[in-house]
Amino acid sequence: xxxxxxxxxxxxxxxxxxxxxxxxxxxxxxxxxxxxxxxxxxxxxxxxxxxxxxxxxxxxxxxxxxxxxxxxxxxxxxxxxxxxxxxxxxxxxxxxxxxxxxxxxxxxxxxxxxxxxxxxxxxxxxxxxxxxxxxxxxxxxxxxxxxxxxxxxxxxxxxxxxxxxxxxxxxxxxxxxxxxxxxxxxxxxxxxxxxxxxxxxxxxxxxxxxxxxxxxxxxxxxxxxxxxxxxxxxxxxxxxxxxxxxxxxxxxxxxxxxxxxxxxxxxxxxxxxxxxxxxxx
Amino acid sequence: xxxxxxxxxxxxxxxxxxxxxxxxxxxxxxxxxxxxxxxxxxxxxxxxxxxxxxxxxxxxxxxxxxxxxxxxxxxxxxxxxxxxxxxxxxxxxxxxxxxxxxxxxxxxxxxxxxxxxxxxxxxxxxxxxxxxxxxxxxxxxxxxxxxxxxxxxxxxxxxxxxxxxxxxxxxxxxxxxxxxxxxxxxxxxxxxxxxxxxxxxxxxxxxxxxxxxxxxxxxxxxxxxxxxxxxxxxxxxxxxxxxxxxxxxxxxxxxxxxxxxxx
Lengths: 281, 263
Known about the structure:
- The structure holds two protein chains of two kinds.
- Chain A is 26% helix and 27% strand.
- Chain A has helices spanning 59-67, 102-106, 114-123, 139-152, 169-186, 220-223, 227-233, 235-240; strands at 13-14, 17-30, 33-44, 48-52, 74-79, 85-88, 157-161, 189-194, 199-201, 206-211, 213-218, 242-245, 271-272.
- In chain A, the strands form three sheets. In chain A, strands 6-7-8-4-10-11 form a six-stranded mixed β-sheet, with helices on both faces.
- By secondary structure, chain B is mainly α.
- Chain B has one domain: ABC transporter involved in vitamin B12 uptake, BtuC.
- Chain B has 14 helices and no strands.
- Chain B has helices at residues 2-24, 28-36, 38-47, 52-71, 78-99, 107-112, 120-139, 141-149, 151-156, 161-183, 188-200, 206-231, 235-252, 255-262.
- The mean pLDDT of chain B is 87.
- The A-B interface holds A 31, 64, 67-69, 85-87, 89, 92, 94-95, 97-101, 104-105, 108-110, 133, 146, 149, 153 and B 23-24, 26, 74, 142, 145-146, 148-150, 152-157, 197, 200, 203-206, 208-209.
């Protein structure tokens, strides 16, 4: 997975990782309403960036700009050349009149070998559903199918828009673990969008708090103490924030050392706020 | 009668698969609006001394583009805008036909179709254009399907979605311009969507649904023309009624039988 950089793109090295996507001074407005202004953001390979903010704070818009689905009114966006994008949108509505199996859904972007589809589906916890009709999947299952479709492209940059919505707390822990495993297995940069301020995973390398502009950014432990964060969401919310600490029992190097835990229907081990060693399964 | 059969089956064979996309993409009203504007195309074509078919095709395309531009203003919702365009252009077409002097147009044949009047040149035009549409559909089948399922995902995966949607609009304009020879301006959209809707019960894959839609359309044409021949029914209406009847029948097919037909 070589990322070639075009001459006009900055070859920046942050934390020793190649930069995949950079936004500089991005501004966007819809029908006279300013959605984003002066946003700077970079996502590097091997990094999980969580974008949090209230509803309507411009999170999805920023993600769509980074993906190239929207053109910003002002500012610049760089994407590394030949960057493979993976995108899991918040929702997908497939017309019930369209008969489409999961197999066909996964191959809409191009032909894929059967065993690769099977292994990717089991990776995201959707084993044995290759022949199922997409219209009959539940919301959570459809999300996993979309994640599988994104992973089949072996993405360099993976955007997950509100993957936690509609998932219960136990499932969220598993999903966080899955996202971490994906980052390690695929060695990609992950942009995770969340409006759930109460649960921010510790595996996040950076939390970016968005309120039309970037109001603060940093390690999850640090951000809850940020005055602007406390002003925006209230001190009570900030104090209640439960940080999910994962067992960092594997190295983050791109090849080897990583034992992918059984995900999805398997056990997601995490510790919640002070309950050290307490495993949920 | 043979020419009518051949022409009708040729159109239905392409209208079915294309109609599947019209259903999946929720573009039924868009297609109806395109068809309604065709009368204005007939008037303009005749006034300028051009073939009516060319006038229809050009106007359908300009209507499609006009809609895309107007729809960006977001003052009214798309379906309101389509309603305005459909009936505004139909009224303009009727006015234009009335105002162009010395023009004797068989209005009924445009509004309700005149499949029995197809001549050999019509047949050549129908089969030529339908082969073209079918060929383009086959070549762009997977990209079109991908854009239909989700445009954002298709774009992230590198498809030129804008161009694909424009291509689809052109295909729709062609099939509608040809289809109105069979069942007329007012009913042409039914030739696309009713067989496709009937096919839904009989299909588990997009391709299966397209094939079933083509077959249902062809059967509707045959039944309609037989009815027209035996009982002297208006042919266009008989074809659409046959298609609607098949749709009702398909609703009554028991689940087990539907699966049997599929396999």
